[in-house]
Amino acid sequence: MIRVHVQYPRTEGAKFDMDYYCNKHMPMVRERCGDALKGMTIEEGLSGGMGGKPPANVCVGTLEFESVDAFGASMGPHMPEIMGDIPNYTDITPVLEIAEVKL
Fold first, then answer.
1. Could you tell me how far CA 55 lies from the centroid of its own chain?
2. What is the C-alpha to C-alpha distance for residues 63 and 49, in angstroms, rounded to an integer?
3. Rounded Cα–Cα distance for residues 47 and 30 (Å)
4. How many of the other CB atoms lie within 10 Å of CB of 4?
5. Do the beta carbons of residue 57 and residue 48 sit within 8 Å?
6. Contact present, 1 and 38 (Cβ < 8 Å)
């Protein structure tokens, strides 16, 4: 199992429309990926730690797939549409990380 983390770093003055992301963008991603997508989470950053510091990320979206190949096969054909939707909810450049689940 792999997880694809799409991180939106907190950036002073940047916009992020959480409602659009949760109710339009991520459902579109789910639809395009079909059965290859095994799970999805959306996390909104609240704090950078116990000291009340700002969070490192405004949001982190996580997608779960059986493998990197399954991710590529399901997302690849739709990547222009998915990436083209980003300006509709944010002006933050997302940071992508793919990780293998170990536990």
1. 16
2. 24
3. 28
4. 18
5. no
6. yes
CA distance 4 to 20: 20
pLDDT at 59: 98
DSSP string, 8-40: EE--TT--B-HHHIIIIIHHHHHHHHGGG--EE
Mean of pLDDT values over 94-103: 97
Q: What is the pLDDT of residue 49?
A: 83
pTM flag (> 0.90): yes
Burial 67-77 (b: 16+ CB within 10 A, else e): eeebbeebbee
CB 42 within 8 A of CB 5: no
In the chain, the domains with their CATH numbers are 2-100 (3.30.70.100)
pLDDT > 90? residue 52: no
Q: Place 97 in a pLDDT band, splitting at 50, 70 and 90.
A: very high
